[in-house]
Amino acid sequence: xTEMAKxxxxxxxxxxxxxxxxxxxxxxxxxxxxxxxxxxxxRGTALGxxxxxxx
Length: 55
Description:
- This is YbaK/prolyl-tRNA synthetase associated region.
- InterPro entries: YbaK/aa-tRNA-synt-asso_dom_sf.
- By secondary structure, the chain is mainly α.
- Helices cover 47% and strands 0% of the residues.
- The protein has 2 helices and no strands.
């Protein structure tokens, strides 16, 4: 299995688990930008909330 496929399976399992447990979450798809400030702007959140996006 390729690394990309492994990541996809892990992502799907995580989404399924969060949904099953009734977690409040959202998936934001964006290009890799590499800067916390840019990602914060894409997410529409404060810069200090970035830790929540690490999962």
